[in-house]
Specification:
The structure is a homodimer of 280-residue chains. Chain A is an alpha/beta fold and 280 residues long. Chain A is built from 13 helices and 8 strands. In chain A, α4 runs parallel beside α5 and α7 crosses α11. The interface between A and B is large, with 91 and 91 residues.
């Protein structure tokens, strides 16, 4: 099997490595708008070679779209327009806009919507990870009934070989749940970084006192705005809903602290502790 | 050298292990209100034996206070009342109330205020960590000019042997900076857990979609309310100040998202990214 990976950054680059390392593909060809990224991807051995998008489609069996989510809807249509029996997958964190754009496309069956739940706070080809990427994490496959059975089976097989348990849901459900467990964490982390940068002028202290707590909570604030702004925009209503609830919880916490309500604070923290049970 | 550790939980227990492992102390005696904790600490080999607080002081050279911060001010005075040449240290996350309580004590010089910037989200003697605790993290020593030179030198020597770089500041400064880089992270994490618990009723999804992002951001929400409620109360004004700023940042983010202000969102995230530079 041969694959093309469009967007050879953190996610696409790591996926290209996984396809080769797990012997799923004999050749992986990179496609990227940025010349620098194309050169890096070849130099780092992430892809075997690079080609322009228009030429690559007829050379491969699988096309992996790993670009920022705002580019995915139009990119998906352009690729489907040229597809015959090839399979196309995306790796985006949001699905509804993409699903809507390809909904009536005659080749819709060749597309499998996937969201492998893995990432780091870094970006670009040099952030691609060989060890520890994807494996053991869940991959969400959306609207599976809209994909051709052979395409779906092949994609399930690929993710299984990579070591990712598969979860099925609709695009709507995926965008809702992802707002809860991924998107809000990023907003919180960005806002926490801004809070500390705003409040703490003596930068030495931030570094020196960066106990494990702060470092892990603020880790996601290093994430790329180019990746995340489109995700927040595409998932705007779900994200706003969760964000409003989060601000509300912080306001309750603040009011209890202002009123010296130790019992109330303790109760809130005890309830928060139940996240243990869920995350185990 | 012999030491007594008062409060053999996560911090006290890990410190007891460090004192023995680094051959700083030939004997470490545990003191704890809870019979269960005393039994566990002996059974787990964290302390050599246990004794009541009133009897232990004359048997040791160093007394380590590792109880929740609300108990520290009175405990410190009671211990200092019985101290002759022994050295007393605490490990609390807040300092101003404690410093005020012992300020005029004739034995104030025997006390060294210390905050080793290490911890995990777990608690109790069974959470005590042998490998990876303390070493490489910063320890803050407060108001060092109020400690006797020999006591200060000895405590500096102990922390150096444990592998902790020392930073000096006043109690006021320490409480302010710790609100920024530690206390607010905990509140954010508690509130994030509550948000997700509130919004996400299908618990399977929380688990399955718990990408690395959510898990690391919410980790601190597993922390003990018994430890953290007193910290927030004792550092109330600093914590409220930072919490208000954090809510403000989230509100700006929300408003930009509501208005589709992609440029504004991107700008905020780019600014947040600069935390990279500070954290290294």
């Amino acid at each position: 099997m041969k694959a093309a990976v469009v967007g050879v950054g953190l996610i696409g680059g790591s996926f290209a490595l996984a396809l080769k390392d797990r012997q799923i593909c004999s050749e992986v060809i990179g496609v990227d708008n940025s010349e620098k990224n194309r050169e890096k991807a070849v130099a780092l051995g992430i892809v075997d070679k690079v080609m322009p998008l228009n030429d690559v489609i007829e050379c491969v069996d699988l096309i992996v779209l790993a670009t920022p989510v705002d580019s995915l809807p139009t990119l998906a249509v352009k690729v489907l327009n040229k597809v015959d029996k090839q399979i196309v997958i995306d790796m985006g964190s949001t699905k509804q806009e993409l699903a809507e754009m390809i909904q009536q496309h005659p080749k819709r069956g060749r597309f499998v919507l996937t969201h492998p739940m893995w990432g780091t706070e870094f970006s670009g080809p040099e952030a691609a990870v060989r060890e520890g990427a994807f494996s053991g994490r869940t991959v969400v496959i959306c609207d599976k009934e809209k994909s051709d059975p052979d395409a779906l089976a092949k994609v399930e097989d690929i993710y299984t070989k990579i070591g990712m348990p598969i979860k099925y849901m609709s695009s709507e459900e995926q965008d809702l749940h992802t707002a809860y467990v991924s998107h809000i964490s990023h907003i919180t982390s960005f806002a926490l970084a801004l809070t500390v940068l705003e409040k703490e002028r003596e930068e030495d202290h931030i570094f020196d006192l960066a106990a494990a707590g702060f470092e892990s909570t603020v880790r996601l604030a290093k994430s790329s705005p180019e990746t995340w702004a489109p995700i927040f925009m595409q998932n705007k209503y779900n994200v706003l809903d969760v964000l409003r609830e989060h601000i509300h919880q912080l306001q309750i916490f603040r009011r209890m602290l202002e009123k010296d309500d130790v019992q109330g604070l303790t109760g809130m923290m005890q309830k928060a502790n139940t996240i243990k049970r869920i995350l185990k």
